[in-house]
Amino acid sequence: MSHTALQPIASLLIRRVFKWVILCVVCVSSLQAWLNYRAIEENFDMTVNDVARAHLPLLSVAIWDIEPQTIQKQIALILKNPSIAYVAIKASTGQHFTGGDINHLVSGQHMVFDIPAPADASTSVGKAEFVVDKAVLRKELLRSFIIVFIEVVILSVFIFMAVVAILRRDLEKPMRQLADFVKNLQANQLSTKLELQRKPGNGYNEIDLVVDGFCTMQDSLQKHIAHQDALVAERTSQLEAAMKSLKQLSITDGLTACYNRLLFNERMPAEIQRAVRYQRHLSLIFCDIDFFKKVNDEYGHAIGDHVLLAFAKSLAKELRVDVDWIVRYGGEEFLMVLPETNLQAALEVAERIRRQVEQHLFVRMPDGTVLRITASFGVAELKVTDTMESLVQRADERLYVAKSQGRNQVQPAFEAVPDVISKPVLEPVLQAITQPV
């Protein structure tokens, strides 16, 4: 029997919840502080500009009428705003008027405004320089951050306490009763039923499922104590192996080992939902081997199968493990599903495959000639309004454009392509190229 110290699940979950609460407090506080900083800074600058707009016309009149006392009064009124620490007025006649704390000239922010003439706003009668005291802004930011931090901490504490209480009541206590029952259970007490003391109204949940399963296990042990474990293990292993084999056969193309269309129809909607929900890129590459029917007709299906298998291997070389996947969509048509991939990146993947096929994929014929293989590609990226059918259709339409414009190419060719592509009325008839080694 193990003597490892007991670590209750509820305590483990509480510690993890506490870490997440701390992380949320830091993140939310930082975000809110940044937002408040932007808002307060904009409001701060707006206030200074409002003061300037309010007093510049009066200063204009005072300078125009040469009234020094009025100018000084306006300076005194401007300095009543705590954000402005120093004001300097320089008239176009050469007169200077100042007011405020000269110590802020170095540390403060300087803002200069033209004083327009009373009669002609395009003419300046002087300049007004405001020295803004950033200490006022910093105090406001600090006060705002403290308030936000306290609010987030209080809310997080209440949430944490509620989570702790719920975990201890609905998880730790029932699990403790279950553990004590199992610990004290003897071989001659297998018929004793497990009953948890729980408050009514909790409903049927996983804990009740565990209790029911334990009771079922007790009944099975009473009936088949001699050989049940071995029998269940054997039958379970056989069933899992059979299910795994059947599942693999049902979703895999027997020739190329790529996924088949059945798997594509089952898996693709979830791939699209995931991309839309998390606002991630998702691209589709529709591939088609050029003149494949001609290969089958002239050289036989054995050569055609060899071409399909070699082409599938070329596609697989560009796969990201556990991310991208390939589907044999039908005949010589393949689909490559590229999650987390935008259109530009998908076009680059398709172009790499096209060059690889063109340069390295060939079949040596019995007469010594080499059958060169090329392929065409249509690429489409998922849009928010797309369904599986519309995405596949757009990729298919672009594949059709690639085939109709000469094959052995990728469409769109690194430029904007309309969502709906009109198919040409007639498709040129092209011949497959063979050449001797």
Automatic annotation (TrEMBL):
Alphabetical UniProt keywords: Membrane, Transmembrane, Transmembrane helix
Tell me the CDD domains matching this sequence.
Answer: GGDEF
Q: From its record, what is one biological process in GO terms?
A: signal transduction
Instruction: Report the InterPro entries cross-referenced here.
Output: Diguanylate_Cyclase (IPR050469), GGDEF_dom (IPR000160), HAMP_dom (IPR003660), Nucleotide_cyclase (IPR029787), Rev_trsase/Diguanyl_cyclase (IPR043128)
Q: What GO molecular-function term can you cite, just one?
A: diguanylate cyclase activity
TM stretches of this protein: 145-167
Q: Which residues form the HAMP domain?
A: 169-226
Q: Which transformation does this protein catalyse, written as a reaction? A: 2 GTP = 3',3'-c-di-GMP + 2 diphosphate
The reply on keyword Transmembrane is: yes
**Domain GGDEF: start-end pairs:** 280-415
Task: Report if keyword 4Fe-4S is assigned.
Answer: no
What name has this protein been given in UniProt? Answer: diguanylate cyclase
